[in-house]
Amino acid sequence: MERQSVRERILGAALEIAGAEGIAAITNRRLAAVAGVSLGSITYHFATQTELRRAALAQFVEDEKQRLREIADEVRGTYSSAADVAKMVDQVATSLAFTAERIAPFEFYVQAGRDPELRDAAIECFGAYDQVARAVLEALNVPNREALVTTIVGMVAGLQLRRLATGQNTEEIASAIGLVLAGAYVTAGGQ
After folding, report:
1. Under CATH, to which class is 57-190 assigned?
2. Domain parsing of the chain, residue ranges
């Protein structure tokens, strides 16, 4: 098993704290305690809280991009029907347990609305989600797919946020994707 560096432990602790208690709870003392590092190592690696937040979100983005690349590769080679893809997306989305590390990005996305220095990392993460949506839509040869990419990503993200907020684990994602894709085919056929 690979040993995490001090920097990686600090970033992991930042995600854990943000997801469990919110962005405001990320203090140097709290980070040091959760990461099991000295207080001085926090300021050694990160001069400001903004720098730390940006790096934590960037770390999540890198991990998420790898996970999403694997999903996109699987989609390109495996799924051929809209129903299969909708079911797969629903399974992937609902299988993600809302651990502190999975809740943290929602906290960071909201913070990016307040802090322009976090926006580049948020844009990169949504770009990775867009790539997966694009791969799915291309694999299915969906008409007007480029126009649907942000709609699909926004819908899945919104339904995930709803799932997080309500605690309800429903099959809404598969149904919603199925409706959007069916609408794309109908619209293309009617043109």
Report:
1. mainly alpha
2. 57-190
